[in-house]
Amino acid sequence: MSSQLSPETISSLRTIIDKTTSGASPSIPGLVYCAVNREGEVFFSHASGKRGLDSPDPMTLDNVFWIASCTKLITSIACMQLVEQGILKLDDADQVETLAPELRDVRVLERTPKGQYGLAPKKRSITLRMLLTHTCKVLTLYKLKPTALTLLTPAGFGYAFDDLKLCDWARPVGLDDFSGHEADVLHRPLVNQPGIRFQYGVGMDWVGVLVERAAHISLEEYFQMKIWGPIGIRNITFFPTTDMKADLAYMHQRSERGHLTVRDHLYRYPLLPSGTPDVKRFCMGGAGCFGKPMEYCQLIATLLNDGTHPKTGVKILRPETVKEMFTDQIPDLPRYCNDFAPSAKPLLANSCPLVPCDVTLTEGWGLSFSLSHQESPTGRAAGSGFWEGLANLFWFADRENGIGAIFASQILPYGDLHVLNCMEVVTGSSLYPPWFSDWILAYALAKGAIIISPDYRLLPEVSGREVLEDVDDFWKWFRAGNAERCLQSVAPMGTKLDYERVLVVGESAGGYCATHLGLSYPEHINALIAAYPMLDLRTPFYTEAYPKPIVGVPNMANQIIDDHLAVTSARTPITAADPPDRLQLAFAIVQNGRFLEFLGQDRRLLPPERLEDLAALGRVRFPTLFIFHGEQDSAVPASGSKKFIQLLRSKAPHVKAKLYIQNGDHGFDFDAGLNTPWLKDGLEMISQDWLRLHEKPSLR
Domain boundaries in the chain? Predict the structure, then answer.
């Protein structure tokens, strides 16, 4: 991969970036993007937008950002320097407990099925390698096929902003992950027994403490003496100078509705006047640095060049050390970062995977950062390292191709879609929500469609009746014009919804909800696509307990359901969750034959029976229907789709309907494209009636 960009490419990239930061209501107030090669040459750099939404100052390459968890890379380099010298040892738990007796005595936060908290002794000692990899030794319980998702129980140190248990335990006082005070960051329990799984948290802050105690100087002094000074960096620090604070980028907050405002800085402690010398102040090795992205690029270039800074010739790490840092330390945990990360503090982080990626891909973990296992479609090599910062900053280092970059913004909460979308275009990485079939997006784009996706309350916290109430409420909301009003805030002026051309699409449980809409409001729906829908729910598959592996996962214990209900019965119903967050519970409900216990058995809840009742009243109408299903579907039997189509054809022969049964398990259509024969045939029928092409052939 060449690091040389043509003038046309540079101009195009700058235009793409500027589109996100321009206009009266920019999607991103300001950002900086810098790309570097292994020779230390910054071959692309651009500052766009303003220093702050309400600021008259333009963003420049000299602006200073809170780089948050991008600090972890610096701390890991300091640690590995001491490992090279034999001062620190990666796998010596006794050394860790000697340097940090607090880690010998740290307790483990536990919660009973009744929701009560207690602190228990830890059963295993902690090593430096465990802290660097956020694990405390990983145990893989089992894997889902074909997605290879690993189902595990949390362990290790956590962050209060994304660990619900830790956040709940700390209240009413609470834990502030970014107060900058040692008591907040270090004086917290493990969130589970060591030896269970990857758990993102304050482990790197403890690594920083160990570096300080082993080197007998503060982490700030160490960074300046052993890293920044030797390679000529002057503007990355835990404690910004007066000049750096004068160039500080503003912090922003995006509301749930997408509205941006300037907010007080989240990490204020290092920015305030202090009577304490900096060398005596607490240095957050996991998230505490401020700096200029252009200078951070020089650290990336050093890693690309096997530990030697290419401009100064100073070696800060040996090549073999860099190689070890970029070696997967937990290869038995292939899906840890794409597991759903529920947010305990939505103002700080969206509920999303740590590293969203295509479900066909897997990721590893080096010594403080994520590793890609496969080459990306855009050419980023397998084995590339990458990580991020809470305020939506992202870096990567592709050592094989000799290219790295950092994308810097200052927006909360983490996981900002506007930043991710811009970053995808600029860096070539992709954001694929787990299990989302690309053909849906491609089809919508090809037809100029706008996707509107509703949330609804989930089983088992509520019943099926309440689920359908939510689906009905969404439909009323949509028909009342509310969707169009929301659209005006994000779409070009004058964009309108065409209520005469409506297509409803649903997958799995969404197929059940889509079918309900088709039965309830056929006069307002032109066509409907149901992918492996849940339709025939009275079958033994849903009502009886027997061995029924789902996508390769053996039967879950019935106790999982009861434990969940004991903790959540009195809580607010859940309206949205990423599937990995609730898979064990969902599988247990089906495998133990308890689905109708939570859905209910009212005939209106069961699509075949509702269709029969409507037919008895002479009121069967239904949109043009396309169903497809995998013959070997182990999560939702294909027999339900076959039964519903057969019933529809007998009760309403006038309805246009197609059923395709294909080889494959649940989600078999993930790699299907618009030219896949069976999909192309079904979509051609759908397009005719959705877009009413027989009435207006010129409409595309």
Answer: 433-691
Question: DSSP E strands: which ranges in 247-392?
Answer: 251-254, 260-263, 289-291, 363-365, 370-372, 385-389
Question: Reduced to 3 states, what is the DSSP secondary structure of residue 606?
Answer: coil
H-state helical runs in 448-582: 464-479, 482-487, 509-520, 540-543, 559-568
Half-sphere exposure (Cβ direction) of 178: Cα atoms closer than 13 Å: 21
pLDDT, tens only, 548-563 = 999 878 888 999 999 8
Q: Of the residues 33, 159, 200, 336, which is catalytic?
A: 200
Two structure tokens written together for 597? 């216990």
For 392-439, what is each residue's pLDDT tens digit?
999 999 999 999 999 999 999 998 878 876 765 565 433 334 456 779
- CB of 24 within 8 A of CB of 37? no
Nearest to 190 by CA among 96, 117, 112, 107: 107
Query: One of 27, 48, 69, 429 is an active-site residue; which one?
Result: 69
Give the model's confidence band at 700: pLDDT under 50 very low, under 70 low, under 90 confident, else very high: very low
Q: Are 511 and 491 in contact (CB under 8 A)?
A: no
Question: Any catalytic annotation for residue 200?
Answer: yes
Is 269 catalytic? The answer is no
Measured between alpha carbons, how far is 631 from 373 in angstroms, rounded to an integer?
A: 31
H or E element, residue 102: helix 101-105
Looking at the chain, the whole-number percentage of residues with pLDDT higher than 70 is 86
Tokens 């079939």 belong to residue: 437
Between β-strands 251-254 and 411-412, what pairing exists: parallel, antiparallel or unpaired? parallel
- Residue 149: what pLDDT? 24
CATH number 3.40.50.410 is the correct assignment for the domain at 433-691: no
How large is the average pLDDT for residues 73-90?
A: 97
Helix (H) or strand (E) holding 408: strand 403-408
Give the SS3 label for residue 175.
Answer: coil
Q: How many CB atoms lie within 10 A of CB 671?
A: 13
Strands (E), 178-321: 236-237, 251-254, 260-263, 289-291
The better pLDDT of the pair 413, 141 is held by: 413
Q: Which of 3, 48, 50, 72 is catalytic?
A: 72
* H/E run at residue 68: strand 65-68
> Do 549 and 142 contact (CB within 8 A), yes or no?
no
Biggest CA–CA distance in the chain, Å, is 85
Query: Is 22 in the active site?
Result: no
Is the separation of the CB atoms in 598 and 464 below 8 Å? yes
One-letter amino acid at 584 equals Q
CA distance linking residue 328 with residue 325, whole number of Å: 8
Report the residue count for the chain: 700
Q: Is 132 exposed, middle or buried (0-12, 13-18, 19+ CB in 10 A)?
A: buried
* Phi, psi for 527 (deg, rounded to 5): -155, 160
Instruction: Name residue 526's amino acid.
Output: N
What is the average per-residue pLDDT within 70-99? 96
Beta bridge partners of 109: 119
Mean pLDDT of 586-602: 95
For 105-138, how does the pLDDT look when each residue is reduced to its tens digit (9 = 90+)? 999 998 877 778 999 898 888 889 888 886 543 3
Q: Nearest-CA neighbor of 169 among 106, 116, 114, 113?
A: 116
Q: How far apart are CA 68 and CA 178, in angstroms?
A: 9
pTM: 0.62
For residue 669, what is the DSSP state?
Answer: G
Report the amino acid identity of residue 334. Answer: P
> pLDDT confidence of 532, banded at 50, 70, 90?
very high
